[in-house]
Amino acid sequence: MLTTHRKQQIIQILTQEGQVVAKDLSQSMNVSEDTIRRDLRELAREGLLQRVHGGALPASPAVADFAGREQLRHEGKIAIGIAAAAMIQPGQVAILDGGTTSREIARHLPLDLKATIVTHSPTIALELVNHGGVEVILIGGRFFKHSVVAVGASAVEAISKIHADIFFMGVTGVHPKVGLTTGDYEEAAVKRALSRASAETVVLASAEKLNAASAYEVVGLADINGIIVERSVDEALVEPYAKRGITITRA
Question: Which residue segments constitute the domains of the chain, with CATH numbers given?
Answer without folding.
Answer: 3-58 (1.10.10.10), 66-250 (3.40.50.1360)
